[in-house]
Specification:
111 residues; mainly alpha; 5 helices; globular; single chain
Length: 111
């Protein structure tokens, strides 16, 4: 149900996520990072992600194309996203900004 079209993303994903985080919209910030990672997987790396895939399915599919550090990042991001989206538990004040800072090291949503 997430919009994974490249056009659905802002030009500067980390800046937009940081602004959301600082405005107290932590779930929205994590959602943006997670969606952007999926956009990168689909549109840049050619990973086939079915609409029915769970977060775990996406992680497994990504494992075939991502280097180890990017896999670790995606696992941490996915965990944070799941806790926020399903349990309404957002990461601590230091974890969210770290995920935002590290996004560009592993993903880009430019088409």
């Amino acid at each position: 149900g997430l919009d994974v079209r490249p056009a659905s993303l802002p030009d500067d994903i980390p800046a937009a996520a940081r602004a959301l985080w600082l405005q107290g919209q932590r779930i929205a910030a994590l959602s943006l990072l997670y969606r952007a990672s999926l956009v990168s997987l689909l549109h840049q790396r050619g990973v086939a992600l079915a609409p029915s895939y769970t977060e775990g399915d996406c992680l497994r599919a990504a494992g075939a194309v991502l280097p180890t550090e990017a896999q670790r990042y995606l696992r941490r991001l996915t965990d944070a996203w799941q806790h926020a989206a399903y349990a309404q538990r957002t990461p601590s004040d230091d974890v969210g900004p770290l995920l935002i800072d590290e996004f560009s090291l592993h993903f880009s949503a430019a088409s």
